[in-house]
Amino acid sequence: MTIQKNRLSEETYQANFQDIHPPYRSEESAVREAHRCINCFDAPCTKWCPSGIDIPGFIRRIASGDDKGAARTIFTSNIMGVACSKVCPVERLCEGVCVFTLLKEKPVAIARLQRYAAEKALRRNWKLFEKGRSNGKRVAVIGAGPAGLACAHTLALNGVAVTIFEKEARPGGLMTYGIAAYKVTTEACHEEVDYILSIGGIELFCEKELGKDFTIKDLQSKYDAVFLSPGMGKTRRLGIPGETLKGVYDALSFIRRIRTEDRAQIEVGDKVVVIGLGMTAIDAATQARRLGAGEVTLVYRRSEVEKPCSDRELEIALLDGCRLLWLTAPVGIQGKEGKVTGLVCSRMKLGKKDSTGRRLPVVTGETFELECDMVIKAVGQEPLGDLFSGKDITDKNGKIVLDDHFMTCIPGVFAGGDAVNGGKEVVHAVQAGKEGAKAILGYLGR
Amino acid sequence: MADLRSTFLGITSPNPFWLASAPPTDKKINVLRAFEAGWGGVVWKTIGAQIRNVSSRYSGFSYRGAGPVGFNNIELISDRPAEVNLKEIREVMKAFPDRAMVVSLMTENNRESWHELVKKTQDTGVHGIELNFGCPHGMVERGMGAAVGQVPDIAAQIVEWVMETATIPVITKLTPNVHSVVPVGRAVVEAGSNGISLINTIQSVTGINLDTLVPRPEVGDHSTFGGYCGAAVKPIALKFLTSLAQDEVTGKIPISGIGGISTWRDAVEFILLGASNLQVCTAAMLNGFRIIDDLCEGLRNWMDEKGYKTIDEMVGLSLPRITRWEELDLNFHVVARIDQEKCIRCGKCYIACEDTSHQAVSLEAGRPYNVYTIKEEDCVGCNLCKIVCPVPDCITMTEQRKGAEYLNWSEFQRRNMPL
Ligand SMILES: Cc1cc2nc3c(=O)[nH]c(=O)nc-3n(C[C@H](O)[C@H](O)[C@H](O)COP(=O)(O)OP(=O)(O)OC[C@H]3O[C@@H](n4cnc5c(N)ncnc54)[C@H](O)[C@@H]3O)c2cc1C
Ligand SMILES: Cc1cc2nc3c(=O)[nH]c(=O)nc-3n(C[C@H](O)[C@H](O)[C@H](O)COP(=O)(O)O)c2cc1C
User: Fold this and answer.
1) pLDDT tens digits for range B355-401
2) Across chain B, what does the average pLDDT equal?
3) Which residues contact B36 (CB under 8 A, 6 or more apart)?
């Protein structure tokens, strides 16, 4: 058992990391699907879209051949319309409530149609928005992830001069460094960011970190308001013995390498165990398989009913040949000569409901060991916590706390995205950015 | 099992479906293929006058991507000499003696031309003649086609000339490009026409190429009014058919129904409103001759299910059901009912009624699904909700009479009742 790189041929790497939801090949196909939409009133899909896209509206426009109108309809509610069409777990959102599902028929392919129109706008570089006439206000945005970008765009649209500070070398946040490579490519992310910024009125500075290169105080003296959208921090620790052995990986760093390095250079094991069953765990497991890992097992402490990923995500992992152990919690990592040799697990059963209404796992007393050479931890990210304020703007879990006007307890400092909601999806972050911008505009008194 | 054999003006065919005079019946090769596929008969593409055609010739009209629901053409009659056509007709008849062979004719408006054309046509032994008084383009400008069919006197004159020499049944094909088809219909019947067929195509412009701004079908950078047909014209054809079938003069002679027949259901409707024979053009052009199987089988299955043995016993059964407006019962009243089990919460009934009708659907907001119910007291029974509903039988119209007696507008006025 070894952890090694160069497991596959270049062609196999290419094939394994292809787009899992390929776009329509032709306009005709999109139009044909668009005609399936029956144009519901007060449509469930729109209600279930966290960014409130007028879905029947954009689909009507595609159907009538007005792709530009469709793209504008999408971007008006969600400036990351291209990304969301590829990464949204639509089976839990718009498509999951399409009225056709009540007839046990296939939902309208909302995501694919959205991708068709939004990507066309990007490819053709349609200028759908113009920055508003300057109102002399300046706002600083921390983090160029989905929340920060959406906030900046709405502000620029309304005449505010925006400066984004991003600690990484490239913008996009987890779009660039986190989300599975077969959903979005890094180039596509950057094209999208460029397209968003093409509205004008937004300055982006990379490799500028709040808390290191400058403080909130510095910003307050130069800007009329600040929007914090730094996302979440590192993967949580398991808090079990053996976490420092060679072969124990943090899912986020593992995924980040897939997004930034040559795939052949990324080593994976013969027997990999992934701990957790959220989106990150699924992405880590499937991508490990796609990198050529021999055997991948996901261990999750609760049962299928409580699982945090969607059926479709689970299906991807299963189709990729990942194995799944329900009601299994890690209690220790075994090693030999500093290297991982196995994961000791405790068999669980379901107990009382927790605060989220899901039943809590409790130990049965039975334990067993899973042989493995690589362990990937994907048990959620830690909030960044109070890295920069000096003032307590977070709750006890480290999430930033907001008032009803999306403002932190520091006047003029707003926030949104994963840093506030504790880690949801891109679409929620976009919506938070939009809402934050509106709150800031209110605050700036326009 | 139902018997689909049909006799129209004494012309027999194994089923009532004939191909209408048009490209599908233009040449021997087409008609042989049609007969091999099982069509009961054909009306051979109009022959007579010499013409030239243009290119392009057709355009379609689509709605919500549902393929062409309407079809338009600017083609004229056969562009091959009559002699060639007649020779081929003879050959086809030899190969398929059991099928109906009717030939469509059109020529200059003088007795000699018509006599000559009728004679040489019937000399081939065909079963009948159809007079094309309906082509709405190209021929009109030369005083033929719809130019004839729009003027009762001229139409009657030509029918008289034809009847002077005809020894086989004569069908006159009428144009729908008139306010009422009855005056021309009566004129040709009184002039001796044995049967009537309708409709020919309706003048139309199907659309414009939005890049070049040239309407379709494009002939270089121009277009012209074309003749509209296909599924979209069925309702109009049924109306014309009904007017003729209900008329005391035209209703007495056999009518061949044409216009938008695409499925066996359409065929049944034409029969129920008075057609004893059916002609099809566009549906065959869009799908090929093989649809004859579905037409025959669907018709036969329906007849078996309803207990009809022959086509003839069904002809005109729905005619008494179309009456004048002032004879409708004002006390009849229906209200919509939504089956909550079937409802998929799309809200289409709500928005249609709220915006454009009587605000008779109520909305109870839900996440993500709203609940829609009918406010019976506000519902006028217009059917709009039922029409927009995507789920069959989800909305039903239930009878809630306003009064026991049958009270129509004529009676209402006679009794001087308050509005
Ligand atoms: C592995 C994984 C897979 C995922 N898959 C999906 C998916 O398929 N679909 C989906 O919808 N969502 C997915 N998500 C969630 C999604 O990526 C996030 O919800 C979303 O990116 C949050 O946006 P954000 O702008 O709040 O934060 P982020 O995307 O995290 O962006 C925050 C940005 O702030 C920068 N930053 C942080 N601190 C500082 C600082 N001090 N100074 C300056 N800049 C700073 C960061 O570098 C980063 O660029 C996934 C997440 C993970 C981890
Ligand atoms: C391309 C084309 C050419 C036609 N040519 C003739 C013709 O030569 N003579 C004629 O009587 N009707 C002609 N018609 C009319 C058809 O016979 C028929 O009356 C009409 O199309 C309506 O039937 P449908 O809806 O089934 O097509 C033509 C129709 C089309 C589409």
Assistant:
1) 999 999 999 999 999 999 999 999 999 999 999 999 999 999 999 99
2) 96
3) B289
User: Mean pLDDT, to the nearest integer, of A228-255?
Assistant: 92
Plot region of A201 (φ>0 → left; ψ -120 to 50 → alpha; else → beta)? left
Q: How many angstroms separate the CA of residue A64 from the nearest CA in chain B?
A: 8
Assigned CATH topology for domain A248-377: FAD/NAD(P)-binding domain (3.50.50)
* pLDDT value of residue B381: 98
Residue B348: predicted pLDDT: 98
Please give the CATH superfamily to which domain A23-123 belongs.
Alpha-helical ferredoxin (1.10.1060.10)
- Please report residues of B whose CB lies closer than 8 A to that of A97: 368-369
- In this complex, how many residue pairs, one in chain A and one in chain B, have their CB atoms less than 8 Å apart? 45
> What pLDDT shows up at residue A385?
64
Ligand nearest to the CA of A229: 1
A48 interaction partners in chain B (CB closer than 8 Å): 368
CATH number given to B6-321: 3.20.20.70
Beta bridge partners of A299: A275, A325
Comma-separated ranges of CATH 1.10.1060.10 domains in chain A: 23-123
CA–CA distances in Å: residue A397 to residues A248, A280, A281, A361, A428: 25, 20, 21, 21, 19
Supply the CATH classification number for the domain B325-416.
3.30.70.20
Cα B348 off chain centre by: 31
Q: Confidence class of residue B350 from pLDDT cuts 50, 70 and 90?
A: very high
State which amino acid sits at residue A157. Answer: L
Ligand (nearest to CA of A287):
1
Q: Judge whether B367 is closer than 8 Å to chain A, CB to CB.
A: yes
ipTM of model over 0.90: no
Residue B375 burial class via C-beta count within 10 angstroms: exposed 0-12, middle 13-18, buried 19 and up:
middle
Residue A343 DSSP SS3: strand
Q: Where are the domains of chain B?
A: 6-321, 325-416
What are the two backbone dihedrals, phi and then psi, of residue A142, each rounded to the nearest 5 degrees? -105, 115
DSSP letter string, B140-202:
GGGT-THHHHT-HHHHHHHHHHHHHH--S-EEEEPPS-SS-SHHHHHHHHHTT-SEEEE---E
Q: Among B64, B345, B350, whose Cβ lies nearest the Cβ of A35?
A: B64
Quick: pLDDT tens for A204-229: 999 999 999 999 999 999 999 999 99
**Is the confidence at residue A138, as pLDDT, over 80?**
yes
Distance CA A175, CA A430 (A): 12
> Taking Cα atoms as reference points, which of A205, A177, A141, A160 lies closest to residue A417?
A141
pLDDT reading at A384 higher than 60: yes
- Banded model confidence at residue A387, pLDDT cuts 50, 70, 90: low
Other CB atoms within 10 Å distance of the CB of residue B362: 15
In this structure, which CATH number among 3.50.50.60, 2.60.120.260, 1.10.390.10, 2.60.120.10 belongs to the domain A138-233+382-443? 3.50.50.60
For residue A95, how many C-alpha atoms fall within 13 Å in the half-sphere facing its CB? 18
**What's this model's pTM, rounded to 2 decimal places?**
0.92
CA distance A227 to A249: 32
CA atoms within 13 A on the CB side of A31: 14
